[in-house]
Each structure stands twice: as C-alpha cells, then as structure tokens.
Amino acid sequence: MVGDFRALVGAAGRAVLRPSAPVTYGLIALCCVLFVLGPAGGLNPAYGTGGELLAAQRAYFLRWGVVPAELFSGAPRAVLTPATALFVHGSWVHLLGNMLFLYVFGALTEDRMGRVQFTLFYVGCGCLALLGYAAANASSAQPLVGASGAISAVLGAFLFLFPRARVTSLLPFLFFLPLRFPAWVVLPFWAALQWLAASRSPGGPGVAYLAHVVGFGLGFAYAWARYGPATKVRAAPPPAPEGENQP
Length: 247
Known about the structure:
Blueprint: E1 6-7, H1 14-17, H2 22-37, H3 50-64, H4 68-71, H5 81-84, H6 92-113, H7 115-136, H8 148-161, E2 166-171, E3 177-182, H9 183-200, H10 209-227
Antiparallel strand pairs: 1-2, 2-3
Helix pairs in contact: 2-6, 6-7, 6-8, 7-8, 7-10, 8-9, 8-10, 9-10
C-alpha cells in the first residue's frame, strides 16, 4: 500500500499492544516467513544470486500472483491465485509497510469481529479486491501480489467501527509535522488519494491503487451491513496509527 502521508506508531496506545489478536499476528508471521523463505527476500541461498535470483523472483510472482490475462482466460492454475497472492510480497519495503498497517489496524478489528469472522472477512475481501483490479485490467500480463487489498478492507471496517480513534500522521505538505486526527478524517483522505492515484494510473506495472479502493469500500460496506449504526463502537481506544506501502 502506498500513500502520500505516513503515520507514527504510538507505542503507548493499547490498540498496538493488545494481545488478543491471534489471527492478525498469525497472518503477519505467515507473510514474513513466506517472504524470507521465498526468492523475493533474497536471503534463501537456494535461489542463487544475480540473474538467477531475478529469474526465480519473476517465476515466483507469475506462479503465485494474480495475472489478469491468465485468470480470465480460464487457466486452471490461475483460479486460486487471488488467495495465494495475499501472502506474497515483492520487496522488504512492500512487506514491512503492509504488515505495519495490519499490525496497527488489524488487532482491534479482529477483536471486534471475532477470530473466525475476521479471517473470512480478510481473505474474502482481499480476494475480491484483487479480482476487481484484475477485471479492470483483464488483458494485463503483469502479476499482482500483496495483501494491500485485504488490509485496505481492514481500514474500511476500522473506519466504521472506530471512527474517533486518533491517528497520528506526517503530512508532506506541512513539512512532515506530526498531527493527530480522528480516523474519520485520515482514512477517507487516504482512500481519496488512492482513488485519485488509480484514476491516473489505470494499468501496467506499479502500485495497484484500484485494489486499495475496492478493498476499502468492501471493508466499510461489510462493517456497515454487519454491525449497522446501532451497534457501532462509540468509545475509540487510544492512538491507532497508520503507515503503509505498495502491493
């Protein structure tokens, strides 16, 4: 996930320190382990170095990532790639940015939804976000990987459930001065940036902003339909920060 502002992690916030989120922490651990063991991390000597490593990385992304042209051509191998792509990341920056967002926003969302519901929500919205991007770029042969669509859905749900949670952000146009805003200000602003970026870069290699937009909308819509205004969480916990990177 890539945004035009970053966030500071408030170590004092119990939103970050809360231990009752085994699914969130399990997802983070799984993504990190797969990245380190796979060719993208560059640490596994089995994949070689130099050109050999680059070739292994390309083959890895094509095998486990979503390739829209293959997905919509009916290739049997491609059917499961919207699920497998959620656990594949392209670089250390990509991985760490996504996992930071999941760590911060996932714990409270999981605690509110429950473990089973959160797991189904995460995987389901993540797959649909990737499918949305693929449908809009059906002829693309560029592999799409990363958990950004699923994590964007978590952000959307978080916005509905904890709209008054404080988010400390660094805004470039204000010389990176740290400012705290409620989630109902920061997260819609982030979503708007993704929408603008998606409209300017509709296809090709790079960041799949459209997957962010689709995931965010799905997450908010699910939380609204599942919980409704009457059951919305009213008391927001201490700072829930934001930070992100690309899919």
